[in-house]
Task: structure prediction
Amino acid sequence: MTPETDEFKIDWSSRSKLRGPGERSIGELLAKLRIRMAPGSQGMSISYVDDRTMRRLNREHRGINQTTDILSFPAEPAKGEWQHLGDLVISLPMAEKMAKKLGVSRRREIETLIIHGFLHLCGYDHEKDAGEMLELQQTLEREFLNVDPLPMSLKRGRKAGSKVKKLKDGTRVVVTGRAATALARKQKTKKGKPAKKADKPRKAEPKPKRGPGRPRKAPATEAAETSAKRTVRRRKATRPRSGVIA
Result:
């Protein structure tokens, strides 16, 4: 039995108000990808979600508290088990935004996301390689879709001027507006601030010098003279007292 005739099962699910392409629209693309990239696989799943669900998944699995266009979850079935390739989760609101930005249909944008995510399921990672994955993605888009590939260099899911802020618990949140401006100012100040130098030990203050005059006497001599002056007192002559109190 050849891969062309093998049954390749795709589980479809949707949790979004928008509608995504299904088996009739992109089934042929998925079959071509499977034959070229993963002929031994027997199935996969594709889920369409909204931005709220995508943001939660992105936070739980990647520690990034923001939405994104697609997440890929490769499966690793053991030998002899049903060969499930993995799961793709696609945000339809994000696909809609990017389609409008690029001037293409929502289906065309999702086709690019499907190829991108499929390569992730096959073990490719554009964040670690030297550009091989994105180059292969462009080749597959031209060959399977007969169109020019869509750019992947555009920032997806973040507004212009937004910043990523790292929280105390390790998660990252995208902030915009005044919060982004304040964060950028804080980072700039932190980078430009010179390293704090260690405090130098203070020098002992010099004792005041005595001016010209009589030489200073030794402390013992001064104490003896002071004690003698205090103890030696002259007594005045007193008259004899009478028994009458005036």
Notes: Residues 158-190 form one domain. The mean pLDDT is 80.
